[in-house]
Write a structure and sequence with these properties.
The protein is α/β, with parallel strands linked by helices and about 290 residues long. It has two domains: about 90 residues, Leucine Dehydrogenase, chain A, domain 1 (Rossmann fold), CATH 3.40.50.10860; about 130 residues, Rossmann fold, CATH 3.40.50.720. The protein contains ten helices and eleven strands. Strands 1-11-8-7-5-6 form a six-stranded parallel β-sheet. A three-stranded parallel β-sheet has the order 3-2-4, covered by helices on one side. The termini are far apart. It binds NADP nicotinamide-adenine-dinucleotide phosphate (NAP). The site of NADP nicotinamide-adenine-dinucleotide phosphate has 25 residues, from helix 10.
């Protein structure tokens, strides 16, 4: 069994990006600048955005964190987005989700200039992705592709089962694994909460990408020998023995499933760090496209 070490691979990617940024600096070129908009005080969201800002510092990007209060109106957020769209100094920006209930998320994501949409959530970029055109691929699916690629995990002709159909992970993942090319050329089954007999489906899978957010959902008896497991789930589970008061748990019963798997991502240290590295990669791409 091989651990798909997202921490190591993401560090390799960050080193590669830093080398490119150093070359830009040596030529007196503008370095990539990522902005992150966060509305409200959600603890997990603040942690994620903090990690993204630190990652920018590590590779030499400029970064801006835009904090807005929990009572921000939709119009105020749309105005801020327009400001970022127009700001030549900003190459790419993200709106950290979830947004407070008074704001229509879809409307907000559609207001982002597609050329600065480094999260790849705008319908124009999502459509390009589905049509195999060059675009920003959403960071988490992009990170999973990169992990499969760097470990040389065969995907052609394999049966890939994706669990969860969110717009940011499951749905794009199902499209990308079925597209022509590597990683891709899989036969894909997309499952969700209405799927019947999911155990039967997962036990026929060569590759399982689990993104539902239910701790230890995928058990050893649900998978076949030599399966490849990508665990996207991140759930904070209360734990008295931890200093933080919680532990981060994935969707997969790692202890038992890893005994049957050929490759598996740990949680933490698998898909999570890859997501941030690929956001940086998309931001570098955005800068290059604006040169
Ligand atoms: P989400 O919006 O939370 O939706 C969950 C999906 O799982 C839905 O499609 C739902 O089906 C499906 N689902 C729920 N219970 C199910 C069941 N019993 N059997 C089959 N499918 C079921 O999804 P998300 O935003 O992609 O998040 C999923 C997990 O990934 C969360 O733990 C999140 O924190 C984590 N995540 C991690 C990263 C990372 O960087 N590692 C990035 C993003 C998300 P319906 O559509 O029918 O409701």
């Amino acid at each position: 069994m091989t651990i798909l070490d997202g921490k190591k691979v993401s560090n390799d990617i960050k080193d590669e990006i830093k080398q490119q940024v150093d070359k830009m600096k040596a030529k007196n070129e503008k370095v990539p600048h990522l902005a992150a908009v966060i509305v409200g005080n959600d603890g997990a969201s603040l942690t994620y955005v903090g990690s993204k800002v630190r990652a920018c510092e590590r590779v030499g990007f400029e970064s801006t964190m835009v904090r807005m209060s929990n009572t921000t109106s939709e119009i105020e957020l749309l105005d801020k987005i327009e400001e970022l769209n127009q700001d030549d100094n900003i190459d790419g920006f993200i709106i950290q989700l979830p947004l407070p209930p008074q704001i229509n998320t879809q409307k907000v994501l559609m207001a982002v200039d597609p050329s600065k949409d480094v999260d790849g959530f705008h319908p124009e970029n999502f459509g390009k992705m589905a049509l195999d055109m060059s675009t920003f691929i959403p960071a988490t699916p992009f990170g999973i592709l990169e992990l499969l690629d760097r470990y040389g995990v065969e995907t052609k002709g394999k049966h890939t089962v994706v669990i969860g159909r969110s717009h940011i992970v499951g749905r794009p993942m199902s499209i990308l694994m079925g597209r022509k090319g590597f990683p891709g050329n899989s036969t894909v089954t997309l499952t969700h909460s209405h799927t019947k007999n999911i155990n039967q489906i997962t036990s026929q899978a060569d590759i399982i990408i689990s993104a539902l957010g239910v701790p230890n959902f995928l058990k050893a008896e649900m998978v076949k020998d030599d399966v490849v497991i990508i665990d996207v789930g991140i759930t904070r589970v209360p734990d008295e023995n931890s200093t933080k008061g919680y532990i981060i748990t994935g969707d997969v019963d790692f202890e038992n499933v890893s005994k049957k798997a050929s490759y598996i991502t740990p949680v933490p240290g698998g898909v999570g760090p890859m997501t941030i590295a690929m956001l940086l990669k998309n931001t570098l791409l955005a800068r290059e496209q604006r040169m």
